[in-house]
Amino acid sequence: MTTTVLYKYLGTNGVIESPVYLEGIYSTKTYILTADKGKILSNGAQKLEKVRCTEEEVSSWKEVYNKG
């Protein structure tokens, strides 16, 4: 499983989302989890190849072999 962190910054005229962390600027984190080849991600209720989630939700996703 590949984990990518995205930081979301709020500006006066919009929002910027980037994998670049800007020190000293308030941001919120989002995680993108991507299953390895031949596998899928499962949280018990859903099965996905790629999921966007919060830091608290990361631990609920597990990588399992894709049976079809």
Topology of this structure?
Blueprint: E1 2-11, E2 14-18, E3 28-34, E4 39-42, E5 47-48, E6 50-53, H1 55-58, E7 62-65
Antiparallel strand pairs: 1-2, 1-3, 3-6, 4-5, 4-7
Task: Walk me through what this model shows.
This protein has 68 residues and is mainly β. The chain is 6% helix and 53% strand.
Q: Tags for this entry?
A:
three-stranded antiparallel beta sheet; elongated; four-stranded antiparallel beta sheet; single chain; 1 helix; mainly beta; about 5% helix; about 70 residues; 7 strands; about 55% strand
**What can be said about the biggest beta sheet?**
4 strands, antiparallel
N/C terminus separation: 18 Å
How many helical stretches?
Answer: 1
Rg over C-alpha atoms, rounded to the nearest angstrom? 14 Å
Number of strands: 7
Strand order of the largest sheet: 2-1-3-6
Mean pLDDT: 95
Q: Which outline best applies?
A: elongated
Task: Give the amount of beta strand, in percent.
Answer: over 45%
Topology order in helix (H) and strand (E) letters: EEEEEEHE
Summarize the amount of helix as a percent range: under 10%
Contiguous low-pLDDT stretches (5 residues minimum) are: none
Class from helix and strand fractions = mainly beta
